[in-house]
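Request: When convenient, would you put together a sequence paired with its structure tokens?
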Amino acid sequence: MARAGAGLVAIGSAAGLAIALYNYIMPTNLLEPDSSVTGTAGALLVVASSAVILLAALVLAAGKGGRGLRWFLVAGCLVGVLGTGFAAYLLDTLPLLIAMAVCLLGWLAMFAIRGQSSSA
């Protein structure tokens, strides 16, 4: 059941990647008109971190790898989501911050669903 949470992380990070790419490439930012992050190093870092979170979430959703790799990816997802969310806050990009909140909900769901299934 933890795969559903990983799937939610993947959906949020895919949306975050699309938003971050749009913000990095487009000269006029329609999603956040007050933000001028086009072409900045911070925006490029957010693109990269969103891509890494997406890859980790896809591996977790597929159920591949051993126990150590899964725990490494779960911990990495949390660090990536929190870091990218903080960067979204600093870059004044509310849609990206919302996407990272979806990722965080998915990360929490990985444990909530696992906890319920083991107690039943």
